Amino acid sequence: MLSVGIIGYGYWGPNLVRNFSGIDSIQVKYVAEPNPSRHSVIKRNHPSIQIVLTAEEMLKDESLDAIVIATPVSTHFPLAKQALTLGKHVLLEKPMASSVAECEELIQIAEDKGLTLMVDHTFLYTGAVQKIKQIIDSGEIGELQYFDSTRINLGIFQNDVNVLWDLAPHDISILSYLKNEMPISVNATGISHLKNGIENIAFLTINYASNFIAHFNCSWSSPVKIRQTLISGDKKMILYNDIEPSEKVKVFDTGVGIKSDADRNKLLIDYRYGDILIPKLSTHEALQQVATDFIESIESKKAPLSSADIGLHVVRVLEAAEKSINQKGKEIYI
Amino acid sequence: MLSVGIIGYGYWGPNLVRNFSGIDSIQVKYVAEPNPSRHSVIKRNHPSIQIVLTAEEMLKDESLDAIVIATPVSTHFPLAKQALTLGKHVLLEKPMASSVAECEELIQIAEDKGLTLMVDHTFLYTGAVQKIKQIIDSGEIGELQYFDSTRINLGIFQNDVNVLWDLAPHDISILSYLKNEMPISVNATGISHLKNGIENIAFLTINYASNFIAHFNCSWSSPVKIRQTLISGDKKMILYNDIEPSEKVKVFDTGVGIKSDADRNKLLIDYRYGDILIPKLSTHEALQQVATDFIESIESKKAPLSSADIGLHVVRVLEAAEKSINQKGKEIYI
Amino acid sequence: MLSVGIIGYGYWGPNLVRNFSGIDSIQVKYVAEPNPSRHSVIKRNHPSIQIVLTAEEMLKDESLDAIVIATPVSTHFPLAKQALTLGKHVLLEKPMASSVAECEELIQIAEDKGLTLMVDHTFLYTGAVQKIKQIIDSGEIGELQYFDSTRINLGIFQNDVNVLWDLAPHDISILSYLKNEMPISVNATGISHLKNGIENIAFLTINYASNFIAHFNCSWSSPVKIRQTLISGDKKMILYNDIEPSEKVKVFDTGVGIKSDADRNKLLIDYRYGDILIPKLSTHEALQQVATDFIESIESKKAPLSSADIGLHVVRVLEAAEKSINQKGKEIYI
Amino acid sequence: MLSVGIIGYGYWGPNLVRNFSGIDSIQVKYVAEPNPSRHSVIKRNHPSIQIVLTAEEMLKDESLDAIVIATPVSTHFPLAKQALTLGKHVLLEKPMASSVAECEELIQIAEDKGLTLMVDHTFLYTGAVQKIKQIIDSGEIGELQYFDSTRINLGIFQNDVNVLWDLAPHDISILSYLKNEMPISVNATGISHLKNGIENIAFLTINYASNFIAHFNCSWSSPVKIRQTLISGDKKMILYNDIEPSEKVKVFDTGVGIKSDADRNKLLIDYRYGDILIPKLSTHEALQQVATDFIESIESKKAPLSSADIGLHVVRVLEAAEKSINQKGKEIYI
Fold first, then answer.
1. Which chain A residues touch B150 with a CB distance below 8 Å?
2. A168-179 mean pLDDT
3. Where are the domains of chain B?
């Protein structure tokens, strides 16, 4: 029976522990949490799990097969490197690490040792994103034209990473999953209203070789919570509104056909605006599928859907975006 | 009795004719419209107005006091220059002209001749923007932090100007009216899915010397119509949703107070989230007030609210934005 | 060329005059309006139409073919009777008349004289209701189960009829059009907060021989405007939200299948909840089609879609509903 | 230390157990659940609670102070009677019991024995209802005019009680809490699309001696989930939309003032439509406060907010409503 240890019982940790505990075929053996005041909660909810103060205490258990890392971003690399080196499979919270170099080193170690390395981009497993992927792959919406995402709310300011590192991984990972094309470059702008100079608002454009563009609007300082993405093809367009309880995905049979009209020396636009379809979505808990995918990837030595490659892609974009902000919006090549 | 001529009876012209006709103290003497098939409509709706084919025909009437120009942007400058030179007051549709140089020349002529030169930024006269202006000026929302506007729909593609020149004047003029600070620079990115290479989607950031940022998302290719602006102060925040029939302006008693906490060497954030107020707005027709402001500005030699200065400000930003798009998002100083 | 006279230029009259004037094959000869202060508006908008103070003045013109009556309900019967007796076709605003007896007498006269008698239930001609009719008739939603309508707002209180006579004709006519079954009885309750004792809020249930029920919630005293109807079949359900600008009709692939399970002696419910479809609707102006249908019905001696029978059906329900309110909700047979 | 036993671990039971377990000053000693397959879940979540199969097993424990009954309605009376007779305080799920007679007998026993008898009308403890109560009691909205509630969804059909007994207790208890006036009578209509003849849709009007009316629209067969109540005073009106995540309560500064105008022999209505306020609501968990109120009522011998009197009021209305449905909407006196 595969045994798993989870590091970090802060904001997301409890969800991870609950979902891994729900898999009958494995054992959640450890939770590491440095804050002793959290231990009683763990004990109450999960009486059979061993609680330790440090990651080291669980990593030294040679029988432990896999670890899940739900700690601040800056600790991802050292913890994952240590675990992989000790031969353990690793699931990392998003973003994967603090730099492209770190991600690449982790991927190399995992590959050398034949270990599963996965990043928890939970949104990829939602019914909404799965349905959108299926629609795009079917060719129904035609050639992709743009991806325009807004993820803003009155948020919990992070004090180690800016709003892009905090919020954009969700949308960049979705984009990376939906569209299999490496970006060429990014432009980003932003502002900090905080004393520590960390951006609480940022705008990111990703440029591609094909005639496609992606844009991200991220903010911790919006009075309203918006989580909305437009994904447009040349045949149909998709509105993905994650706040909507029952109408998250809308497919618009809407397109604009263009015919040049030499005579009148101008463009004629032929608008179509047709039915809207709101497809039924699967309502499973996404994180349950993350946990299952991690375990199955270990067991069958397959690549997980939310792969380290997607994790690296996300960090590549974030690293470039941060450079662009620091260079006043200059285009940064990836 | 002041006499007015209106050039162009296309999309917006009929609204201008109707609203100027509603002012009892003036006479709408001419409408110029080159397309003869439109003349019967003008005649039916306004039997007493003289219809001419060209602007020249009305401009040669020395008794004509003022003209309103509702023609394509590229014709704004020559028509307005000719009219001002002939001593006529001028109201221009937005955007004011095709370049900063053109705007500045028009302003100079008007000043030299003591004529009223005004730009029809209709939104400034809406109940919503008037209320927002009043709230900001009262100090209630504190120091302005950001302005974030989204104006997207499945739009009528223009074939002479890109989506920024078409849609952004609304929001840039509102911003210019609400915040009395000249921008330092802009960054803009965009894409064209049209054969003529004109951008149908564009994203614009405006940078300021103060700790304020403005962002604009404009698109002719969205399946949903969104006209939404967030205007945030350090005390309260405003959501301006122009699509909402009865709740266009929401004032959120929401703020984030920051206190540094040296001991723990990190930032503590004190969130406040309080009542929301939806103020009653005046429901007058904005364009009626544009027409009235133009006439009153002529009569009393005052500067209109939607002044040529705001018109110039808008074109200044647009000109820089277009440069930035052409230079791959590079920061362009204003 | 068919000639038409319109009686009443109050709230709805201008729309009727405009739409009948838009039909090239007929002539709008007269508008009768007792309030002289309205005459200048008519003259300005429709310089070629003859304006008279009383209906009598136009009815005495023997060459006049048809009249449209847009006056208070209490005057519908005498005006229509006089016009029909004089051999003129009649289009009546809703509700058709003040009582079933009046409606039946008008229908009899029209039949005897071979004249077109039509009631302006405008909603029947909207893209939304036309689409719903088509969906129901296709059998797609299965056997109809219920019709539940809410039509409330902060309304213009009428001082001659209660809120049911004012607002319910819209929904009762829609129901009558969609479902071809005579009701058995009604129950209604209501309240008046006005000094004149006229109900400003009322609730109406219509009972049928089949296993179908209809309910109507009408109010002039709601702070929010709601115009929403649920129409359910045993296979699919329709939400018709007339306030929605672009998503007025939603078809839910939702049903509840029931299988009795004797063993466990209770009902098992098999829920299905599937896709939602928002069909594209025709965006014509409904009143234009009302006018056209009236003219075509005269010309081709066919029954109009919004027939006198539907008008009578509506008044039958309203008359019974008023009795039920007066008898404290007692079931009143129709 | 007060000890509590909870009967029933079905739909609502787990929430009760969790919330009572969260009160440090008491001990949740037993959970009774007849279905053995549920026991492992209870054990996992609450390892220290004793699990029994029947209520009898916990009731025979003389040291047990209080019980909470979360079982089907038909079992409420016998279980509560037994518990009260044995001297235990009782919290009953809504509705309190199956008849007025049952409720009255329970109240009598509790009174005779000096025991706390409370009904879990959870909604009374929500931030929304607490805020509405406060607004009404302040006199701000003036004299109450109507209460109009819609609670519809695609629901879990009950097989022992109809939709009114299932859904209306929420809204009737809220009304009873907000307005301290006994109704005079009710009218109700409904329909069953189920083989067992239990109404899945029902409409209820409650009549009062004062010029106030209440209406309830309840359905298990709606494709959309609506939980919306209008509460109107003669000065202001409240919209309570329980589905809204952040704008549950809206207060409209809206009213209609009426002045009779003898001269024109009709009513003049003076509409006011002003600001809308969305007050900040407390976001506590309502059920936690139910549990706390029950314990405090026992300890301090005070009447709980969600008293047995409100529970009785609700059943009184439901019993009359069922009679009215069976007598085709006839007014039934209470």
1. 150
2. 98
3. 2-120+286-302, 124-285+316-333
Q: Neighbours of B (≥3 Cβ pairs closer than 8 A)?
A: A, C, D
Query: In chain D, what residues touch B275 (CB-CB under 8 Å)?
Result: 277-280
Q: Check: pTM over 0.90? Answer yes or no.
A: yes
**Calpha distance D113→D88 (Å, rounded):** 9
Do D271 and C154 lie within an 8 Å CB cutoff?
yes
Displacement of CA B196 from its chain's centroid (Å): 26
Residue D118: pLDDT over 70: yes
| Interchain contact, B189 vs A219, CB within 8 Å | no
Domain D124-284+316-333 has CATH 3.60.21.10: no
- Distances in Å between the alpha carbon of C83 and those of A326, C94, C309? 81, 17, 19
The span from the CA of B333 to the CA of A329, in Å, is: 12
Enter the tokens of residue A33: 């949490």
- Taking contacts as CB-CB distances below 8 angstroms, the residues of chain B near A264 are none
Chain D residue with CA closest to A224: the answer is D246
Mean pLDDT over the full length of chain A:
93
pLDDT of residue D272: 52
Architecture of domain B2-120+286-302: 3-Layer(aba) Sandwich (3.40)
pLDDT of residue A316: 98
Assigned CATH topology for domain B124-285+316-333: Dihydrodipicolinate Reductase; domain 2 (3.30.360)
| ipTM over 0.95 threshold | no
Chains with ≥3 Cβ pairs under 8 A against D? A, B, C
pLDDT band at D256 (very low <50, low <70, confident <90, very high): low
Q: Which tokens hold the place of C114?
A: 């071979």
**Tens digit of pLDDT for each residue in C82-101?**
999 999 999 999 999 999 99
Q: Do D256 and C154 touch (CB under 8 A)?
A: yes
Nearest CA in chain A to B253: A223
Is the domain spanning D2-121+286-305 CATH 2.40.50.140? The answer is no
Min Cα separation D126/chain B (Å): 17
Q: Which residues of D touch C194 (CB under 8 A)?
A: 258, 267
What amino acid occupies position C208?
A: Y
Residues of A in Cβ contact (< 8 Å) with D45:
45
Query: Which among D273, D274, D278 has CB closest to B275?
Result: D278
Cβ contact (<8 Å) for C278 and A275?
yes
As separate numbers, helices (DSSP H) first and strands (DSSP E) second, chain A gives 9, 15
Chains B and C form CB pairs within 8 A to the count of: 5
For C277-292, b/e burial (b = at least 16 CB within 10 A) is: bbbbbeeebbbbbbbb
Q: Which CATH number fits domain A124-283+316-333: 2.40.160.40, 3.30.360.10, 3.30.572.10, 3.30.1300.10?
A: 3.30.360.10
Does the distance separating the beta carbons of D253 and B280 come in below 8 Å? yes
- Write the pLDDT tens digit of every residue in C317-331: 999 999 999 999 999
Using a CB-CB distance cutoff of 8 angstroms, which residues of chain C are in contact with residue B243?
245
User: Which range among A147-161, B259-273, D227-241 shows the weakest confidence by mean pLDDT?
Assistant: B259-273
The CATH-assigned architecture of domain C2-121+286-306 is 3-Layer(aba) Sandwich (3.40)
Task: Tell me the C-alpha distance between A316 and D123, whole Å.
Answer: 49
